[in-house]
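Minutes, methods subgroup
Present: GH (chair), OT, SY

1. OT presented the first of two proteins processed in the latest run. Sequence and structure tokens recorded below as shown on screen.
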Amino acid sequence: MAGQAGSETVDIVVAGAGAAGCAAAIAAHDEGASVLLLEKMPTEEAGGNTRVSGGAWFDNRDAERAAVYLRSLCGDRPLPETVVRTWARETRHVSSWIESLGAVVAPNGDYKPEYPELDGSDCYGGYRCVDGELGAGRLYDVLSKAVGKRDIDVRYDTPARRLVRSPETGAVTGIVAGHDAEQQITARGGVILATGGFEADPEMVRTYLGLADPPLWGSLAATGDGHRMAMRAGADLWHMDNMMAVNGVAPPGSRHGFFAMFIYASGFLWVAPDGTRFVNETPQTGHGQARLHGSYELFPRLPMHVIFDERTRLAGPISPDADVMAVGWQVLMNGYRWSADNTAEIASGWIHRADTPAALAAALGVPADQLTATIDRYNAACAAGRDDAFGRPAKTLVPVDQPPFYAYTAKPMLAWTNGGPRRDEHARVLDPDGAAIAGLYAAGTVSSTYSWCKDGGFHIADAIAFGRIAGRHAANRRSELSPHSQRPPRSEPKASEEGATESSTSAPATCGRSRRTVRALAAGTRSRPLQCLRGRRRLPARARRPSGPDHSRDPRPVRRIESP
């Protein structure tokens, strides 16, 4: 058993330094609490999925209509009305709060709602992001610097291990953290879990999502640590079967994958392991769901072989590079740049090449006659301009008929999970009877609001909104338990709209030690992979959105894409 390295006491402990954790720590600090922010990863890999995300949040035009939209997106998986209304109100303040941290907030592109047919979608005002640019760690930089400017104790490479509970009341009173020399920290106001999802834990992924070893888009820190701590404290769970995945391809031996998106061409088809085509390859997709057979279903769900020809290979890279889509671990943290004509990936063996469909089938291990017949039927549909089998739009029906032929195996690449400990409108974690577990909070993808469908920019908005809620509520709880122990709150204007002030729920704060790396972040330092990705273009818009990126530096036609 690991040894104990002593104990200490603060007002609030926040576990996880992504968007939710930073928002919680800042909010609690600004309410007058002392805050300890624990980050599992070392400085150069800190920030969870926030660090490699698009860093955008949706522009909530109207709180009442946003509540309607969220109810519509949930469908037959309704949320408590108190959570819906709090989410709708608090996500209205994300832009003004980010601006209060010193950032310039601007729109990016002309993004439309992914579910325009649903009631309430008129609340959706597109993406807002730092400097009007997506990705490249911009949001994480802003949040990290804001933490560094405050008297918040940030400890990197310090994983949260387990919660401490009162034997008399069951309330969460602290946390044990660290590697070999664990340290017990008493949290007078509470512990806020912002530890991210469980996509990097293969056992949890198999149990809750039914996926076997999917490639990962984001941080390896997302191993369900907060989920297990909360469950041991008696937490109920929600949304555990919900997720956001995209088609991805992972190099042999790597857990991280690349988006496999074909944004420059549509001459490709998907086949199952038996060589048969099984779905429209270009469905109306959202952030995790697609409209299939009259309902919204998780998509993609199955591994598949992706077949294309020489025409498509020459059209452009299968996976967008940082100039187009500066997101994802492989691109931002590993610094990989996909070759413009896919030749490097073919040479590396990630993509199979063959002169005939039959030879390609042999490389894939599928029946040659079946794959050949499947490609022939697809090409016949292209010639007819009509896909009777699966309803693929005619404008996307480009034949696969120019040898040589190519294929790679794609899997659902997990961007994030949505399920976790159930929480209420104050971000308090609930037990199976619906009672709040005193002193325990959760925010971000460890306990996402979204029970089913979600739109672009929803996850960052949710993380910041409920991170701030958790921070304020925990800080106020500390003040109520010991009203004379806190310093005065930081005097900063709070975001308001049309004369309405924000709800006064509380959040965690931090104390002041081990801030060397925080000061470095505040000074604007960045890990090497991020330094080499400046000057990128804005992320293109979705295929059905009316306007998109500036292609003046690249004359190739593009299918517009989306960012998680």
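2. SY then presented the second protein from the same run.
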Amino acid sequence: MNALEIIGLSGLVPVCVIQDAADAVPTAKALLQGEIGVMEITMRTEAGIDSIRNVAQQCPEMLVGAGTVLTLDKCKESVEAGARFIVSPGFNEKIVDWCVKHQIPITPGCVTPTEIEGALAYGIRTVKFFPANIYGGIKACKALYGPYQSAGVSFIPTGGIDQSNLREYVDQPYIHAVGGGWLCNTKDVVNHRFDAIGQTAGEAVDLLLGFTVESCTLAEKEAGAIDAFKQKVSQIFHLSVEENQIAGSVIHEPGQSEQGQLVIRTHQINRTLYYLHKRGLITQDTFEKIYPCRDKSCLLADHVIDKTTIKLIQPAQL
């Protein structure tokens, strides 16, 4: 799986401004604690290159890239330090040409048809849309997608996006992922509030996936076993038992077959498969077998919770 595919499955790209390279690894670990395995370290500070190097060497499970790359020299320096993808705020042909020739994933900033066609000429179909809030937001992305849909264009909008409008973007088929500094607040980094960074990341992932219980039928179980089942589902899907998100959907029917079924509604099945694999519910073999899922539902037949199979569904309009 290449870097761009991982970014798309992650759905979230924290834009990290790090002023002290010693803070890079704790920041990366905080994001990983919140289940985000991608980070874009900007070149806005002198610590940018060393920060990338530290994360690449000490936190290999993190997909680290360089952002705000303005020159070819800085691009080369970033890659040498360990950056696995490059992000530029605009379409810099020298940077794009070098990255394409050296097979380095790059998402150049493109907000006009001319810039998009420049990217397409290099075989680049996923571009950065920045600053999204200034250039028309999701409406502009939709309008630009229209003539370029057949070319497979998708966007990574950044700027003016946070938890309040995240869903407006990520539910659209032309949005590859979303980025932003709100996922990695600079003040939190400076003040070493890494727990806060992890919490924000985790909340964003839960919002991204949008798990709800559509239905649940259980084989005959004792009351204690049902409670244990609810707790396991709550832990895996980050659903609150106290709010009856699970309890209100559980049906206990004596005499049922040996296996029940839990139906989970999610905003995007393939992203869900990616995150459930990271959470350990889906093995690598199973993930490779069922990904990508091209339907609006997916039965995880090989994985059960207390003799209860799991079925994922997503809204038909997506």
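Chair's summary of item 2: The radius of gyration is 21 Å.
Next meeting: continue with the remaining queue.
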